[in-house]
Each structure stands twice: as structure tokens, then as C-alpha cells.
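Q: I'm writing up a methods section and want to include an example of the input and output format. Could you take the sequence below and give the corresponding predicted C-alpha cells, formatted cleanly so I can copy it straight into the document?
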Amino acid sequence: MRAWAVIAAFNERGSIAAAVREAPWELCEGVVVVDGGSSDGTADAARTAGAEVIVESRRGYGLAMTRGVDAARARRAEAFVLCDGNGAARPDEVRRVLEAVTSGRADLAIGSRALGTLRPAQRVGNRLAIWAIERKYGVRFADVGAIRAVTDAALFKLALTEMSYGWPLELLLRGAEHGL
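A: Here is the clean output for your methods example:
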């Protein structure tokens, strides 16, 4: 299965090169970084590390992911690993979720960042979202996650519309609705 990494970044020059270099290259054909108009040289650092870079001046996590997925689709990607450029995505988790999808075991896989790295407000919001989704759909997971892998067919079926920062939650909700 042809997989690409898609990384959203904004003013993450200090962490983006490691995120690109640590992509599971044995599973990915390439890396697309969507830079949300950074002012700190994030795009140059990502290019130097080997990523294809798309600069998107409009803000929104969903917009960045959509732009990156579209670029990877143009290169015939069949699966995507989606993560942030801030260093929260551990390489072992990236590999684990992508292997779940590329092996055919899952259409959608969610990784878990180290919950200890979340600020208290993030921890509360994370737990609340998990509780609500588990209660409504009976789907259990540990984290809203900064790492996601999904097949192109599943992502297309989900028809995500949230172009701002609610995109990861919409992905989980629609994924649960569709039994992914």
C-alpha cells in the first residue's frame, strides 16, 4: 500500500526536521509538510530535512491536513499517516499506527502521545472528548491523539468538512459513526 506522511506545522523550526527525518521511511514514499505561514523558517527546515513543503497562509488544522492529503493523493497515495510537526508524535507510535493501516488490520488507527506532555486544560479536554465518544459509540481509545493513520478510501468515505482545529475530533467522530 502506497503511504505518505502528512505533517501540519506552524512556527516549528526547532522540531520539524526531526519529525521529517523520523518518518517511517520504510513504509512511506514521501513526506508532505504543510506550513501554515510560519515566520521562523519552518518551511526551509522541512525542505532541508527532505520533505515536500506546501505553504498555506490560511490557518486551520483541517485545511492543512486536506492540502497535504490532496498533494499525496496526486502522487497516488493509498494511505496516510497524519501528525503534527511539534514533536508530540513519537516515531514508534507513528510506525505502529501506519503499520496497522498498511497491513490491512485497520482502516483508521489513532496513536497516543505521552499523556504526561499535555497541559492540564488539554488533558481535561482530551478526557472529555474520549468519554463522550466512548459513551455514544462504544468505541474505546486512550487519546484524541496527535498521530493518525487512515486509508484513502476510508478518509474519502468520512467526507470531513471541519477545516479548523476541530478536524481531529471530527475524524474520530465520523470514524466511530462508520465503525472504523
